[in-house]
Amino acid sequence: MALEQIKKDIYILGLNPGHNSTAALLKNGKIIACVSEERFSRLKNNIGFPQKAMEYVLNFAGIKAEELDMVVFSGGCLSLTKPGEPYNSYIRAYKEKSFLRKTFGYLAYKYPKLMEPIIKFKHGKDSLYDDSVKDRNSKEFSEYYKVPPNQIRQMDHHEAHAMAACFNLPKDKESLIFTLDGEGDFLCATVNIFNGKTGEFKKIAETEKGSSIGYLYALVTMYLGMKPNQHEFKVMGLAPYAKKYDIDKVYPDFKDILWIDDLQWRSKFRMQYSDSFLFDKMKFQRFDNIAGALQRLTENLTVQWISNAIKKTGIKSIALGGGVFMNVKANQVISELPEVEEIFCIPSAGDESTAIGAYYYGYKKYCEENQTPLIVHPIDDLYLGPEYDEEYVKNLIKSKNLEKNYNISHFKDINSEIARLLASGEIVARCTGRSEWGARALGNRSILANPVHKDTVRVLNQTIKDRDFFMPFTPSIIEEDIDKYSINPKKIKAPYMSITFNSTEQAQKELPAAMHAYDFTIRPQIVYKSWNPDYHDLITKFKQRRKKSILAINILNAGFKFNVIPGRVEAKVDVRPSPEDSLKEIETFFKKHIPKRFKWKKEIWIKPIKKNKDNALIKYLKKITREKRLYMFKGFTEMYYLEKLGIQTLCVGPGDGNLAHVEGEYIIIKNIPKYQKLIEKVMKVELK
Predict the structure, then answer these.
(1) pTM above 0.70, yes or no
(2) Could you tell me if 181 and 188 are in contact, meaning their C-beta atoms sit under 8 angstroms apart?
(3) β-bridge pairing 317-321 and 174-184
(4) What is the CATH topology of the domain spanning 165-345?
(5) 291: Cβ contacts below 8 Å, ≥ 6 apart
(6) Which is nearest to 550 in space by CA: 519, 567, 527, 578?
(7) Which residues contact 390 (CB under 8 A, 6 or more apart)?
(8) CATH topology of domain 390-432+440-557
(9) 266 in helix, strand or coil?
(10) Fewest beta carbons less than 10 Å away: which of 188, 256, 271, 372?
């Protein structure tokens, strides 16, 4: 039955009220809107009912909640009306442990069999409580949004992870779906078979959460001083820097505590108590060696687990879901298995994707109960969030009187102008069309830069992104050119930045700023013309100028970082869904902080200082920054070589040759006018 033959539109709402809460809406078997609550609450990985996100997807469709045919929850939350909060339970649970909890955790690590009955008893109580929370959520939703109780369903967490893949799996054969995460509904892993012909879904194996590699990875992340459930990708990015010889010394300790038994994960003790293991076994080990050993364990065990399932079932088409499969390096190793013929990595595979699995489950149930054909459309692009038209932007400019303080230009062919700016080395922030759903910016809410210069990474980190120096950025590559830059013999589709590939020699020459600096892997966004014709056009025009790809940096899930030089004042500004919100925060910061500390003299930056330039510039900077320790040391080795290269710099570091250097202590003098122009644009003050 064709869509046009359906008399009534079918709307299914999927809700994830847990980690990174999300709402997704399906219409007649096709996703039409999906957005995470953090985009509105500005709370990273927001946990709680996604009220604003739900309001957006319903408004986008032009319907009210009572018009929904089914609502499916992929988990529970304490209350539908309680405001969300940042997901930091790991940090609270492990950093604020009482003496009793610390003792219990240590005993569970050292004597797991002795403590197991107590843990299982607690899990039984927790399970009953979780069921009561879900029942309460369903009742509250029905009463508040006027949706009949029989149209509200609750589903298993890992089933939701797995069903998020069903839209994009082959329709003519069976596929294996693997889910792997920290935990969800007391499981950490499942193996499932999906029949593309019949739509039948069957779980064939599961692993209880005690053997979770996701737990282990999160606690190692915290042990290394980073944020668990958020910065695991940094541990992954750090791993290649460790030497094989050093990893070999650490790896046996990890290998001893976690292993694969057929289609299940097994562990020496419960992984939620592996903080005791880390303090016991990893003490005095180098951070990169720990990261390297953990990443090797992750890759080896996932490969073994998936290989076992393929051998057992004979099914060679696979899909990967759950937070652990946000590990793009592990996904690459899995894809390279000879027995894997097809692979689909669920985009943004963390808990936010369970909202998509939830509405698939609801749609399938609705069709079964109403004897309606199951018409499923593949998920293509992820441009599923809010957008702002030209009229909105014009009204914003007028209402805020922005033309007084900003240079606002209109271009008939803005992509050609952006291509020109990128080719000349400028960095461009792009906001157009609908925003992306998920953890990756895919061109519509992105910072773009020229990938040919390695120094681009340093500039971006120091002035905007504040990303760790060892983390790579990502190239956006049009579909026609992907074979020039990535080694991808299986022709795996990679439009979502969800998998890495080894790079070609051409890529290493032309895209040095858009790959891992040590192992030269790339995590590309393949840009399909049919999915995003405007972004494809922009890259094509840039390519015509530079014959290169574009370096695209994800900014939606991070913050702008402005470094105002001189004076080293920094501001972290959240990037909001609307232009108005972003503008408001930027202006608020600069109005609040900059005028109090600096008196700018416009002409100093523009007019060249011909006579005794260094001393005059230092004298002036001392005056406006009130920095007494500001000198030009000709004896510095770095400065000597910079001058040999024709780069004149100013040292604004400790001001003492005997002191250690600090980050960002050299300023390239010719760049100072650029800083002044940037500050002029964002400050609502008169520069005299």
Answers:
(1) yes
(2) yes
(3) parallel
(4) Nucleotidyltransferase; domain 5 (3.30.420)
(5) 220, 224, 235, 236, 238, 239, 242
(6) 527
(7) none
(8) DHBP synthase (3.90.870)
(9) strand
(10) 256
Give the pLDDT confidence of 408-461 residue by residue, as tens digits. Answer: 778 888 899 888 888 887 888 888 889 999 988 899 888 888 888 777 777 777
Helix (H), strand (E), coil (C) string for 97-130: CCHHHHHHHHHHHHCHHHHHHHHHHHHHHHHHHH
Amino acid 319: pLDDT? 97
Q: Look up residue 40 and give its amino acid.
A: F
Residue of 210, 178, 417 whose CA lies nearest to 315:
178
Cα→Cα distances 67→13, 144, 151, 505, 592, Å: 11, 14, 11, 55, 47
Residues 6+ positions from 423 with CB-CB distance below 8 Å? 450, 542, 545, 546
Pair 74, 134: CB distance under 8 Å: no
Quote the CA–CA distance of 570 and 560 in Å, as a whole number.
10
In the chain, which residues have pLDDT < 50?
Answer: 1-6, 553-577, 585-586, 589-614, 624-637, 641, 653-664, 682-688
Q: Do domains 3-160+355-369 and 165-345 have the same CATH topology?
A: yes
Closest C-alpha to 229, from 89, 133, 419, 64:
89
The CATH number, out of the four listed (3.30.2130.10, 1.20.1290.10, 3.30.420.40, 3.40.640.10), of the domain defined by the range 3-160+355-369: 3.30.420.40
- The structure tokens listed for 535 are 């972004």
Give me the pLDDT at residue 602, please: 27
Domain ranges of the chain: 3-160+355-369, 165-345, 390-432+440-557, 579-682
Q: Is 645 exposed, middle or buried (0-12, 13-18, 19+ CB in 10 A)?
A: exposed
Helix, strand, coil % in the chain, rounded to nearest 5: 45, 20, 35
By C-alpha distance, which of 486, 480, 493 is closest to 529? 480
CA distance 22 to 47: 9
Phi, psi of 475 (to 5 degrees): -90, 140
Q: Cis (ω within 30 of 0) for the bond into 149?
A: no
Structure tokens at 465: 């992104």
* Predicted pLDDT at 242: 93
Bridge partners, 502 (sequence order)? 487, 521
pLDDT at 512: 86
Residue 184: beta bridge partners?
187
- Determine contact, residues 318/175, Cβ cutoff 8 Å: yes
> CB-based contacts of 349: which residues, under 8 Å, 6+ apart?
161, 164, 320, 321, 322, 323, 325, 326, 498
Q: Whole-angstrom Cα distance, residue 346 to residue 504?
A: 25
